[in-house]
Write a structure and sequence with these properties.
mainly alpha; three-stranded antiparallel β-sheet; zinc-finger; zinc
Length: 168
């Protein structure tokens, strides 16, 4: 009878490797936790040079669903009472028209939703289902990813403007 590992064409896990991975993860969390990486830039550059994706410690947010919207943000979304001409608006999720004097949740992008439609959505992901406008999350790694992405877009925009200014 073949062993489990032979049957599934894999190797047993290495407890030493798992221990090293866990120690690295804990050290990275500690360094990041109180801004200690600013106090020890040499150590942080060591972490930056390591390939955490190979260790399975980094989520590739460009290929994963974003985390849920922050609970405090969702709770503080404005509630709007539908009046007059607004009653012709439809909820983009269920496609039903809003009733006069019905309360709807307004997203920062100014889209209106029934609370029964948008709240379950925001408990799974942080964006407007219509335009993908993102709300803040409680996930620090995702928020860091968003900041990095915004910085890269800003840098690209600046380079494009600089290039355009050189030839005008």
């Amino acid at each position: 009878m073949a062993s489990y590992f032979d049957e599934h064409d894999c190797e047993p896990s290495d407890p030493d490797q798992e221990a090293r991975t866990n120690m690295l993860l804990e050290l990275a969390r500690w360094m990041r936790g109180a801004g200690r990486w600013r106090q020890a830039p040499g150590v942080w550059s060591l972490f930056n040079s390591m390939d955490f994706e190979d260790l399975g410690l980094v989520v590739d947010w460009d290929h994963h669903l974003p985390p849920p919207a922050a609970k405090a943000v969702v709770e503080n979304l404005p509630r709007t009472v539908i009046r007059g001409s607004q009653s012709e608006l439809k909820c983009p999720v269920c496609l039903l028209e809003f009733e006069e004097e019905e309360t709807a949740i307004e997203m920062p992008c100014h889209h209106f939703f029934h609370s029964n439609c948008i709240l379950p959505w925001l408990s799974k992901t942080n964006s407007c289902p219509l335009c993908r406008h993102e709300l803040p999350t409680d996930d620090d790694t995702y928020e860091e990813h968003r900041r990095d992405k915004a910085r890269k877009q800003q840098q690209k925009h600046r380079l494009e403007n600089l290039h355009g200014a050189m030839y005008t």
